[in-house]
């Protein structure tokens, strides 16, 4: 399962929330703002970070196995409670069939079962399938006099258990650049890797991070190559049973050198920074065509420099193996550098794989609450190849491939953005200290797009409160808007928890400071954010800076959630389109539907202009009401026909004209009919009444008939739901709507629900909580009779 955040992991798949952005409410200056619920991003990055109980679980060094229609993710479990250093007792596995919802498969190998290891160093591994069995190549600290070494374990299933071999492939004393012979590519002279390339001599953690590749030569013979190494890069060939290194020269022992069994691999063209170029974490890859045939160069993805960046090099198939000639970025100027150091971790580790016609890039960072370079979590991005095989820079994001990012605009439509900064390639005494905290946030038209994007997520301090949100930076994942008491600032900051892991539910000392309650905006506009840590203090923009203030009745406290994409289509609903001559043309019944490039839509009841004042309403005929909407400098217009009639002409109610939309825009869909069914936000509805006149502000009523995910733990039944772009009041919950949804524990019921059918909630969680507003409390309490499945002794109704 997935995130989000954490524990939305198992919780995210199981959790179902039919959230609705409520239309702006008209309030007077003196009126208290009321809670509203924003749509939240519950998927995206990270893609793991939980155990079988949904509790936060740190892990790093990802590797991927695609087996049929299932993708398996393997990680080393980070169990360090605080400070630095690695404590990694076992390897964990997750699985998915859509790359969005991940399932925790459990421990696949316990280091206590590895006889030669120190029991606490489940460092990077790679799992592969070969001849019907599954092999895990892994590395760990030898508990004897050796350092890190590479071993292999075997299983009958991709989810283990993996049984380790009694000994590692070789001892770390075998590899040493000061004695390893290589061939000078320019002269053909035999020398050593240390002398030719200036490489570091052997050291205790050199032999780590194995990766492998199967290759078939021109004679049809299969070769199994293993690559590994920290600071120095090595390669060898494995035997067909994958249990030992192939003795190339038949001397009965495993040795290094150009004519021996282990070969040094050089990457040319990579810049050294502070004496470091290639660092660690190699991952071998080659592209496939539509028929599954491999083609083009070999790629090795790896970590470079320190703090670690992501990079790649390529090698021609003609030289791959003993005499590999790896070239940084394929020798193409400006390429090779894939990702800067992450905002939250000192290390990184890549894995690249193909799935359903696309290529994906896996990596780790420290973006979980209390995370760091020693308490990590896994993330995913889609990766694109150019026609020449080069690869564009990959942005680390909070949204990954399935989350949603938005702009947050102030009352002048200026986006909020954090101060631009590059993640440091140096340690704390260089550009800035880790963790990065207290970064200024401003309203800025000049900010880079990625600095002005935000992921709105469930509130860190209480994920069961629908009106709570936490706001994560899109391009600095793990960093959130944070309310500070000092100076009443709102800043961007790490959820670092004083370098200590969070509790099992992801709660840290900063959780409340990073949580805000969403309220109706002043004078019926947008949304206002109230600090949960500092009640009755509200987010505001003063002199261009994001701050906290102790008032809400000002435009400074009003924000709009806007799509990051450009508008591609628009449409509208207008309730009244027939007027008696001489009457005023109303525009307050217009609802504007805006569709963006990413397919998302938003409904707006203000923020547009019309030509209503220029239309002559004294003469009969069909008039054209032109509505204009501008977003990010792009203006869209569309026309709505309006009929003006005299008393003599109106012998019957005129037929309401269809919306006429000019240019690129598409027409609205047909008004649903009674009996039609629909699904929105995972909740199933049936139309029970249709009102074309829209007299009460809706187009009729619907009842709730069920839920798409019977394992959901949480559901919200809204006041209204949109079907085909038309608004319907939700006034009934049908019999057996949530029958036997055993995990359903939190049910929020909208104000319009008047009746609840027999056994609607029978068989749900015995300690379920029903949340209702104060206005609807008495009505819903009366409707929740014992025959609905409501159990007074164990269930409760909570007024919100």
Automatic annotation (TrEMBL):
Organism whose genome encodes this protein: Roseburia zhanii
Keyword set includes Hydrolase: yes
One MF annotation (Gene Ontology) recorded for this entry: alpha-L-arabinofuranosidase activity
Signal peptide, first to last residue: 1-29
Name of this protein: Family 43 glycosylhydrolase
UniProt KW keywords: Carbohydrate metabolism, Glycosidase, Hydrolase, Polysaccharide degradation, Signal, Xylan degradation
Any Gene Ontology biological process: xylan catabolic process
Important for catalytic activity, responsible for pKa modulation of the active site Glu and correct orientation of both the proton donor and substrate (site feature) positions: 209
Domain Alpha-L-arabinofuranosidase B arabinose-binding span(s) in chain numbering: 442-547
Family per similarity comment: Belongs to the glycosyl hydrolase 43 family.
Domain of life: Bacteria
SUPFAM superfamilies, sorted: AbfB domain, Arabinanase/levansucrase/invertase
InterPro entries per record: AbfB_ABD (IPR007934), AbfB_ABD_sf (IPR036195), Glyco_hydro_43 (IPR006710), Glyco_hydro_beta-prop_sf (IPR023296), Glycosyl_Hydrlase_43_Enz (IPR052176), LRR_5 (IPR026906), LRR_dom_sf (IPR032675)
